[in-house]
Each structure stands twice: as structure tokens, then as C-alpha cells.
């Protein structure tokens, strides 16, 4: 499947716990003031890559602990990301977890999920979600893997089972 991205980082330590392969999706509707990645906002920017190419890059690195979908807004490209996440989770060479950032809230994604947008398809493949828009007035450098105090680190699989957002500490 094709995915429009701004770029990747092969071994990030700032986009989630451990060594992570980070994919920066291209396109974002939020326009948060003070955004860390404003170059990812244009839906026509970046480059188009095949998810097979990304998958092959990811599984080559045995040092990785997981994969992070950042942005832009990953939930604007749910279907290719869900497909990629499913393949990553099924890889048996070494266990990898999958985290996504989103400017939406978990509650918004659940309430607005439908077959067309694929929100549930992607959520079902995630281990963790950092949700909520970046709010400049709530910015904090003390938070692990989050930019502003309104954002949450959510255990997605527990949340789906319990029917509400289960906030956890980043490990």
C-alpha cells in the first residue's frame, strides 16, 4: 500500500520508549500553534512510499524496540498504517510494539470511527497512543514523549477492552 510521508528516523529515542523506527506521516488538519513538525502539514508535500519498503527497513534492525507513527496526523492515513502495523506485530524475529501520536483525542476517534476512515482498524493494531493536540500554553519539557500537559499516553488494547481511555505511564 502507498503511504505519504515526510520522512523517517531509523533509531529514535525521543518518539517513545527504547529504540524506535519513527515514520513521520505527511498531512495534518490540526495546525497546532507551535507545532514541532510544521513541514508535515501540507497534504500534498512529502513523498509517497510503499509500506513494503518501510516494513523491510524496520525488520532489518534487531536493535529496535518498536515503531512510532508521528506526523503530520497518522489518523489521516489509517488504512496503510493499520496494514503496516499488523505486519510489524506479526513479525516473529523480535517483538516490536507500535505507538501512534494523534492530535485527536481517543474519545473523538472512537466516536467518529467508521469503515471509511479506518480509525478502529488502526487503533486495533496499536499498543499505545499519545492523544490530543499540542497546546503551546501547556507545553512542558518535563513530560516523557508528550509535548503538552493535555496529552495522554494511553494503553490502547486495555482501553478497547474496558470501553474507555486507560491512561498509563510511559514505560
Would you mind describing this structure in some detail?
- The protein has helices at 51-59, 78-90, 106-111, 119-123, 156-162; strands at 2-12, 20-25, 47-50, 66-70, 97-101, 128-131, 152-155.
- It starts with a strand and ends in a 9-residue tail after the last helix.
- The chain is an alpha/beta fold and 171 residues long.
- The chain has a single domain, classed as Alpha-Beta Barrel (TIM Barrel), CATH 3.20.20.70.
- Strand 1 and strand 2 form a beta hairpin.
- Helix content is 23%, strand content 23%.
- Strands 3-1-2-4-5-6-7 form a seven-stranded mixed β-sheet.
- The chain is globular.
- It is built from five helices and seven strands, in the order βββαβαβααββα.
Count of spatially separate domains: 1
Strand numbers in spatial order across the main sheet: 3-1-2-4-5-6-7
CATH architecture: Alpha-Beta Barrel
Query: Approximately what portion of the residues adopt beta-strand conformation?
Result: 15-25%
Look at the helices and sheets and give the structural class.
alpha/beta
**Tertiary shape:** globular
Total number of strands: 7
CATH superfamily: Aldolase class I
The amount of helix comes to 10-25%
Order of helices and strands: EEEHEHEHHEEH
CATH class: Alpha Beta
Radius of gyration: 15 Å
Main sheet overview:
7 strands, mixed
* CATH fold group: TIM Barrel
Amino acid at each position: 500500500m502507498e503511504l505519504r510521508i515526510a520522512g523517517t528516523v531509523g533509531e529514535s529515542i525521543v518518539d517513545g520508549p527504547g529504540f524506535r523506527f519513527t515514520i513521520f506521516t505527511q498531512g495534518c488538519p490540526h495546525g497546532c500553534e507551535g507545532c514541532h513538525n510544521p513541514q508535515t502539514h501540507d497534504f500534498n508535500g512529502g513523498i509517497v512510499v510503499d509500506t513494503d519498503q518501510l516494513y523491510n527497513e524496520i525488520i532489518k534492525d534487531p536493535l529496535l524496540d518498536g515503531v512510532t507513527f508521528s506526523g503530520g496526523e497518522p489518523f489521516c492515513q489509517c488504512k496503510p498504517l493499520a496494514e503496516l502495523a499488523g505486519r510489524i506485530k506479526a513479525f516473529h524475529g523480535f517483538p516490536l510494539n507500535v505507538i501512534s501520536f494523534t492530535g485527536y483525542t481517543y474519545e473523538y476517534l472512537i466516536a467518529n470511527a467508521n469503515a471509511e476512515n479506518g480509525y478502529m482498524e488502526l487503533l486495533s493494531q496499536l499498543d499505545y497512543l499519545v492523544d490530543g493536540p499540542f497546546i503551546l500554553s501547556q507545553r512542558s519539557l518535563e513530560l516523557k514523549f508528550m509535548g503538552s500537559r493535555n496529552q495522554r499516553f494511553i494503553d490502547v488494547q486495555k482501553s478497547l477492552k474496558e470501553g474507555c481511555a486507560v491512561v498509563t505511564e510511559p514505560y
